[in-house]
Amino acid sequence: MMEWGRILFQSNPEHALPRGVADRFHEAARRRRALEHRLAALFQRWSYQEFIPPMFEYAETLSTEANQLASEMYRFVDRDGQTLALRPDMTIPTARLAGSKLYDQPFPQRFFYRGSVFRYAEPQAGHQREFAQIGIELIGASGAASDGEIIVLALQALREAGLNDFRLTLGQMAFIHGLLAELELSSQEEQALLDAIDRKSQPNLLAILGELRLTAAQRRAVQTLPTLAGEENVLTRAAQIALNRQMRQAVENMQELEAVLDSYDVKEAISLDLAEVRGRKYYTGITFECFAAGLGTNIGSGGRYDHLVERFGPTQPAVGFALNVDSLLYARQRQNAPTFPSAPRILAQLSLAKAHIRQVEKLRQQGFIVRSACRPYSPTALRQNASAHGEQGVLLFNQPSGQTQLWWHNWPAPRPLTPACLAEVLS
Q: 11 in a domain, yes or no?
């Protein structure tokens, strides 16, 4: 298969795909759809309803001031001269929906989505320029209970994906906003300080502090911030350096959230990092990233963004997350996760006998995947053809007797198709 693909590419280079996109077929396509189906079923059990946004919208709609992905959007001009863009994620379309079309509906509203998103970025393992995303948004609810629901669902999604070694790093952007409001720095000073905090570089941080005019309490808060990471006493130490009401409320929110997460028994998979500053223009409260062993980048992220919906309509608090499906599949491979179960596959002998057709249809209704042979084969050739296509069984129909037989891959001979025979196959 790979050799044929190589030869075809060499003879027809115009058939090559653009950098950062890929064909997915056969088992790769099945694995992706199986994972999406499992995660969608999980979200539906929590009362999230599917939202299918358009593939492209007006570029201005997707280019909010807080959108970190605006520089990575694929833009193009249509025949009417309008500048459009492919969606770089699905949170902004969901916020647009809530603000412009659901403003008179009861809140909170819960949505999940799945599909391709597009970003002009450097391709890497599990993260191409077109990649599959699945996620949820809870719009119209604030507080620790809604934050906790989102985090718990993110962790359950990672488990449902079959990962056994993962971590969620949890931050609180309101704590950062409160600190910056207290410091009253220029935009250049603020950016330099945030860069040093993001790198967790004490030398850089001390050098910047030497140039700023801060009180002793402010200086202590800034120096302590990069150390507010891990699992022990983080919130206690954060409370000790809180300089204003916003910072104190952020710590209280995290303490309440900690109690919610403890009730769900998920704290062991979470580590705190109050020095997380990326996305500060977008997030207003909690922020988190999901990581899996074997990958150097996150496989998903989320947080609270209470000022996004108001761009399209009445203000609504909102929180959510999105997972990179391709990264999840890559992480599954690195962690040797078990294969998703699939329905038994059978190749059926070509026959127009009504009795045989009824048997084939009954098997399909029972959940079997049955492919009909396109031409007559001998029993041996049928088994060889089935094996080549990854099918475990062959269905034979004896025209004179009207008897249907099943020949399973590990049986020495075919058996009459009976309920007991099927039960053995499914066991």
A: no
CATH code of the domain containing 363: 3.40.50.800
CATH of the domain at 127: 3.30.930.10
Residues 367-378: tens digit of each pLDDT: 999 999 988 888
Cβ–Cβ < 8 Å for 247, 269: no
User: What rounded mean pLDDT belongs to the chain?
Assistant: 91
| pLDDT tens digits, one per residue of 122-170 | 877 667 899 999 999 999 999 999 999 999 999 999 999 999 999 999 9
Summarised one tens digit per residue, pLDDT across range 198-238 is: 888 788 889 999 899 999 999 999 999 999 998 779 999 99
Domain that holds residue 419: 345-426
The alpha carbon dihedral of 267, 272, 278, 280 has a sign of positive
The mean pLDDT value for 361-365 works out to: 93
For the segment 51-65, the average pLDDT, to the nearest whole number, is 91
Cα distances (angstroms) measured from residue 42 to each of 146, 157, 326: 17, 7, 18
Q: What angle do CA 40, 41, 44 make, to 5 degrees?
A: 85
Question: What is the reported pTM?
Answer: 0.89
**How far apart are the C-alpha atoms of 172 and 175, rounded to whole Å?**
6
- Tell me the C-alpha to C-alpha distance, in Å, between residue 118 and each of 89, 196, 372, 425: 7, 30, 38, 43
Residues 321 and 355 in one domain: no
What distances in angstroms separate CA 354 from CA 345, 400, 403, one per listed residue?
21, 13, 12
